[in-house]
Structure prediction request, 81 residues.
Amino acid sequence: MKGKNNRYAIFAGGVHLMNGGANSFKVAAPTKKEAVELAEEIAQSEKAIFYSWLNILDIQTGEVVRYSILRGGVLVEQRCS
Prediction:
């Protein structure tokens, strides 16, 4: 996505990993729709066996949408109250 303004950053990781932060960054996308599509691809990838969560960060607003990754690459949005 060279040359595009990537507003949405995608992070993924496992529950008990000691690393995190920038190490959990996977990819960025210019639109929310593309970010969700990339998140679904990550959740269904071979590496997803190492991930239990995935977050999409809107870099402009700071809003984060949190997901759990279930078996079979299913993303479930986590609602925080």
